[in-house]
Amino acid sequence: MMVSWVLFPRVLSPANWTCVVEKVKLVTNRYFSRTSAVSVDLSGIFPPIPTPFNEDESIAFDKLASNFQHWEKVPFQGYVVQGSNGEYPLLTTQERVGMVSQVRHLIPSDKLLIAGSACESTRGTIELSNKMAAAGANAVLVVNPSYFKNSMTARALVRHYETVADRSSVPVIIYNMPANTGIDLTADLISQLAPHPNIIGLKDSGGDIAKIARVVSLTRHHKFQVLAGSTGFLLPSLLVGDEVCTIYNLFTKSKLQEAVELHLRLVTPNATVTRELGVPAMKEAMDMMGLYGGPCRQPLQPLTDSDRQLVRDAFSRNGFLPKC
Predict the structure, then answer these.
(1) Mean local confidence (pLDDT), 180-208
(2) Residue 17's pLDDT band (boundaries 50, 70, 90)?
(3) Does residue 25 carry a catalytic annotation?
(4) Which of 153, 180, 191, 198 is 20 to 30 A from 58, alpha carbon to alpha carbon?
(5) Structure confidence at residue 176 (pLDDT)
(6) What is the rounded CA–CA span in Å between residue 80 and residue 67?
(7) The pTM is what?
């Protein structure tokens, strides 16, 4: 499993961990390689990078650089740029590529950079994927098209991903985000895509551990990595990154009780800045913890005073004390 954005979705007791550990062991060390010179091993923690804006909604690249001065002190394996939390639907193509290019220059060459490149059309996704590659992305994260929801049959989606993967110059990671797209990619559909030599894995943010385990089982004979996304500590990884990396290390060393205890401290903060209040809350928490969050781009709205207090309480009550 690519143990990155989130390791343990909806796992609340050590008794439930046995099957998860065995599934993870099946795939933790798998990697993709089209040639002997190209490999992408996705093990580790990859936090999603928000797009910082000035008050006039232009991108604050100076604030991006200052945030990375903090993040680079944490042992992240790499970063995800232009995912959902980067507000990518609200950015132009030029801005999306510009963010990836800037991040590439802010991180060491050995850190992996995964770029969101999804567009509603297959043609557009291919073009943007290759622009992201040229800007320095090691792989692209592709959420499924969803505007013409009723037409997104299994046949259409399989064809979409296969065509993108055929023509992308970097490996493709399937991104299942049903809360935003209204479409939940099935385990059977994903297993049809797993044999493609340029599709290296899945990031699933649906939060269904049984489904994730089924995907792992169905794809175990392929070089296919499975990521559990956004149910335990996806966004707090930006704010309390050392703790997230500690959980990962505890898990890989089979210190499950310690990992669970630390994980549970992150559940409430994560829920507050994802399911409950979203990206504005994430940015508020960043400001609170001494990073730069700043405003969102409209139509997203700033938090109310009461919502700000909810964010502050969610972190402080779990031992993550605000710095400002």
Answers:
(1) 93
(2) very low
(3) no
(4) 180
(5) 94
(6) 14
(7) 0.83
SS (H, E, C) the chain: CCCCCECCCCCCCHHHHHHHHHHHHHHCCCCEEEECCEEECCCCCCCEECCCECCCCCECHHHHHHHHHHHCCCCCCEEEECCHHHCHHHCCHHHHHHHHHHHHHHCCCCCEEEEECCCCCHHHHHHHHHHHHHCCCCEEEEECCCCCHHHCCHHHHHHHHHHHHHHCCCCEEEEECHHHHCCCCCHHHHHHHCCCCCEEEEEECCCCHHHHHHHHHHCCCCCCEEEECCCCCCCHHHHCHHHHHHHHHHHHCCCHHHHHHHHHHHHHHHHHHHHHCCHHHHHHHHHHCCCCCCCCCCCCCCCCHHHHHHHHHHHHCCCCCCCC
Q: Which of 50-54, 130-134, 137-141, 208-212 has the lowest mean pLDDT?
A: 208-212
What is the per-residue pLDDT across 266-297, written as a single tens digit (0 to 9) for each?
A: 888 888 888 899 999 999 999 999 999 999 99
Q: 35 has which bridge partners? A: 38
Angle between helices 17-27 and 209-218 (to 10 degrees): 40
- pLDDT at position 188 is 97
**86: how many CB neighbours lie within 10 A of its CB?**
23
Q: Out of 203, 211, 223, 283, pick the active-site residue.
A: 203
Phi, psi at 48, each rounded to 5°: -85, 130
Other beta carbons less than 10 A from residue 103's beta carbon: 24
Cβ-proximal residues to 159 (8 Å cutoff; 6+ apart), any chain: 122
